[in-house]
Design a protein that fits this description.
Elements (H helix, E strand, L loop, with lengths): L1 E12 L5 E12 L2 E6 L6 H8 L7 E6 L2 E2 L5 H11 E4 L11 H11 L4 H14 L15 H14 L4 E5 L7 H14 L4 E5 L3 H7 L2 E6 L2 E5 L27 H14 L1 H42 L2 E4 L2 E3 L32 H5 E3 L4 H13 L4 E8 L5 E3 L6 E2 L18 E3 L4 H7 E4 L11 E5 L8 H6 L18 E5 L2 H4 E4 L2 E4 L5 H7 L3 E11 L11 E4 L1 H13 L1 H8 L12 H11 L5 E8 L2 H16 L10 E2 H45 L1 H9 L4 H42 L9 H27 L3 H6 L2
Bound molecules: adenosine-5'-diphosphate and magnesium ion.
């Protein structure tokens, strides 16, 4: 039975000039024999072996293997054929330098899916057969030429192939080692078909069973020809699928690449480090923006309790070009054109049209009142500012002075507005979330006749405050206990403070203050305690000075509303203090300050947190939705303005930094691409070897993809690790500079994403080089040095 049959095989090369390497060669080979092929250099011997071994493709004719035509073979049929049936032995050994002897032999088995332990056993066994039992853990460059060739023979044998193809296996060996190698091949040929190309006619004669001479791509002579060369029809048809298909597992590809990278440790580390720089950049930017956002949202919720949603009766400028309410076609902004080109100069009434005045009605107050029932969880406090002026007399030292309070319709306290006089929120617990009581015996006021002193975080109050109390003595400092329990203010009712004189009322003159303070049964205010902002509070709810209870406000308003002066002003169109005529608007203001009109001039709503604020705003918007434009009430949300400003800033910074980091990422990606390319060039020989033992194109690209993935993984882990370590000094530095702790906050999820991202990027970078590797012609790959 014929093992192999070549039927008019022709192979021509067209590189440059046309070379006919094989010219209609017809040959038969028996199941087991030792065939020596002789012939001058360039006559086509290697080409013949490569075609028999399925490493190269014939142009015409047919190669019949075990009676099976190969005309219809696909790439993977050839790969499987090489892996199952062929063992190659080359003149230059073609061992993989970074693999041990044992691993070099195992390689073919890894492709045919043999288990690890069986692989080792079989590889060991063939190595013992070729006499290398004690060399198995050496690297090829630690062996002699004869030993290397024996490793190559072991590799060729390990898969138990039917055919061994040896291309000048003794070409590089001295005569003593040559005979060793030939002895081994001779032994093999007792059970298999061995086809050996050689230059050495003497050795060929001595060892081989059959000698074939070639010249210029033709068979010149054959010492023991197969009598009759049957044609394909002589054999029953078999399916090419009789060969077990090869596949390299991902694990094999990874370990192959891993060991290759280990042999180039220095370069791998530098590559991974360079690749990690981009990752470090992105990781740090992410950590910073992460920490920054966390800081902002935490400080925002602090800030929210201090910066309320405010509805004031102040006039507000509204940008009608924006989304504000627009009214009617007569408005000049209806042109809607900024920077007009026409020869037009518009005149418009800024007073009339761009100002909006909130009119707080009873209806609205009821609506706000309802807010605390509707959204009890959302509201910390609702504070009202009253327009009524309290008549306050202070006796800080000997003299009694008037404690001036400036009516402040804005009613929004951000420290040091110069009034030093404000209402406390109703809810004691809320105050104590923001303020500490300091000083011995300090407590919160419990009624209209009690008040607290508010100091700043340094225990300070502006000198002007003490002057307002009549404490002009040059005492630089006081003691907290100088104030606790002291009664220094008297709130004088309107009827005692204003004297009616015909149509006109006159306020008490400074000369009368002393008598009024002592004799009038007003509301004497006792200071019960001292409040100081808590350490982590970011801003002040209360300004420094005095703070009284809402009970006092109610009391004063009730008293003012009934007072003679208020009633008189309600009746009159003239100012009851000045005697001047008043229009409706001005009269309303006077009524407010005298307490006749109890409508608040400002409402402040303190939300509990960010979500609450949105709910409250929704609630306020719902009121406006049903109202005509001029009846709507516009609120201001200072916290949002501040927060959106900072978050815009942070986003901008993040984008810019990410941009820079991305550039370094791109650079490192390109670099990894180049390094993979270099690796492909370096490992061309290895690609040829892998293909010769049956690796598919896919397996080759797998090897290089595994290599880039390892590099990507290493750079990712390195980058993430370095970034994590860097967050410590960065945090220290920033804390030293700004007192903000933990601004670089590394999110573990980002770490994972970055490692994965790094692997994806390097995979992309290595894609072209690994495709290139897979596409390499195995014959050419084996020829390169
Ligand atoms: P041998 O092994 O007998 O020395 P080869 O089989 O290597 O000869 O080559 C046979 C002929 O084919 C030679 O002329 C060689 O130059 C040519 N040849 C071999 N491979 C190629 C190739 N890849 N491209 C072009 N010509 C080739
Ligand atoms: Mg050759």
């Amino acid at each position: 039975m014929l093992k192999l049959k070549l039927d008019h095989i022709t192979k021509t090369y067209t590189g440059g000039e046309l070379v006919t390497a094989l010219d209609a060669v017809s040959l038969g080979f028996r199941e087991h024999e030792f065939v020596a092929i002789l012939g001058p250099s360039g006559c086509g011997k290697t080409t013949l072996l490569n075609i028999i071994g399925g490493l190269d493709r014939y142009d015409s004719g047919d190669l019949i293997i075990n009676g099976l035509s190969t005309k219809a073979f696909k790439n993977n049929d050839w790969d499987a054929y090489r892996n199952n049936s062929i063992g190659f032995v080359f003149q230059t050994y073609n061992l993989i330098g970074h693999q041990t002897v044992l691993q070099n032999v195992e390689i073919a088995l890894t492709l045919s899916g043999v288990s690890a332990s069986e692989r080792k056993n079989r590889a060991r066994k063939v190595l013992v057969e070729v006499g290398l039992a004690d060399q198995i853990n050496k690297k090829p460059n630690q062996l002699s030429g004869g030993q290397m060739q024996r490793v190559a023979i072991a590799r060729a044998l390990v898969n138990d192939p039917d055919i061994i193809l040896a291309d000048e296996p003794t070409g590089a060996l001295d005569s003593r080692t040559s005979t060793q190698v030939l002895d081994i091949l001779k032994g093999i040929s007792r059970e298999r078909l061995v086809i050996m190309v050689t230059h050495n006619g003497e050795l060929a004669k001595k060892y081989s069973d059959r000698t074939i001479r070639m010249l210029d791509g033709k068979i010149q002579s054959d010492s023991n020809p197969v009598e009759e060369v049957q044609t394909q029809e002589d054999f029953p048809m078999q399916s090419p699928s009789k060969f077990k298909k090869t596949a390299m597992s991902l694990w094999t590809a990874t370990s192959l690449s891993f060991r290759n990278l280990l042999t180039k440790r220095g370069r791998t580390i530098i590559t991974a480090f360079a690749g990690s720089i981009g990752i470090i950049g992105v990781a740090l930017v992410l950590a910073l923006s992460n920490g920054m956002s966390a800081y902002i949202s935490s400080s925002q919720s602090d800030t929210l309790s201090n910066y309320p949603i405010t509805i004031t009766t102040n006039e507000q400028t509204i940008d009608f070009r924006g989304e504000g309410p627009t009214s009617g076609a007569t408005a000049p902004w209806d042109t809607n054109v900024e920077f007009p080109d026409e020869n037009i100069l518009y005149s418009y009434d800024s007073q009339d049209s761009t100002q909006h005045k909130n009119v707080i009605t009873q209806d609205y107050l009821d609506y706000i009142e309802e807010l605390e029932n509707e959204l009890p969880e959302a509201v910390n406090d609702i504070a009202y500012t009253q327009g009524v002026t309290m008549n306050l007399l202070a006796k800080g030292e000997e003299t009694v002075v008037k404690f001036e309070t400036i009516p402040e319709p804005g009613g929004f306290n951000i420290g040091g507005n110069g009034t030093y006089w404000q209402e406390l929120p109703e809810d004691d617990a809320f105050i104590l979330t923001l303020y500490d009581l300091i000083g011995e015996g300090s407590r919160l006021p419990s009624g209209e006749n009690e008040a607290v002193l508010v100091v700043d975080s340094y225990n300070r109050i502006d000198k002007a405050f003490f002057e307002k109390l009549g404490m002009t003595e040059d005492a630089e400092n006081y003691q907290l206990t100088d104030f606790i329990g002291k009664t220094i203010l008297n709130v004088i009712p309107n009827d005692d403070y204003y004297i009616k004189n015909g149509e006109i009322f006159t306020p008490a003159s400074p000369a009368d203050y002393e008598t009024l303070f002592d004799s009038v049964e007003g509301t004497k205010l006792t200071i019960t305690g001292i409040l100081r902002p808590q350490e982590d509070a970011t801003s002040n709810y209360l300004s420094t000075g005095l703070a009284y209870t809402p009970a006092l406000t109610s009391l004063v308003m009730a008293d003012a509303e009934r007072s003679e002066i208020a009633l008189a002003q309600e009746e009159s169109d003239r100012h009851v203090l000045l005697g001047t005529p008043l229009d409706e608007e001005a009269k309303k203001n006077v009524l407010l300050t005298l307490g006749a009109d109890t409508t608040p001039t400002a409402i402040r709503i303190y939300p509990r947190d960010y979500e609450s604020k949105d709910l409250i705003k929704e609630y306020l918007n719902a009121y406006n939705a049903d109202q005509a434009e001029e009846d709507q009430l516009i609120y201001t949300d200072l916290a949002e303005t501040i927060a959106s400003l900072t978050s815009t800033l942070i986003n901008t910074i993040t984008y810019v930094l990410t941009g820079f980091a991305a550039i370094s990422l791109v650079v490192s990606t390109i670099m990894i691409g180049i390094i993979t390319y270099v690796s492909v060039i370096e490992r061309t020989k290895e690609i040829g070897i892998l293909r010769s033992v049956g690796a598919r194109k896919k397996d080759i690209s797998r090897v290089f993809n595994a290599e880039t993935l390892i590099i990507g993984f290493t750079s990712g882990v390195l980058g993430v690790g370095i970034s994590y370590l860097l967050t410590f000094p960065i945090n220290d530095l920033i804390e030293n500079l700004t007192d903000i702790a933990g601004i670089a906050d590394f999110n573990p999820l980002h770490a994972v994403a970055l490692v994965v991202g790094s692997m994806i990027l390097t995979l992309i970078a290595g894609f072209i080089p690994s495709r290139m590797a897979a596409g390499k012609d195995p014959v050419i790959a084996l020829r390169t040095e």
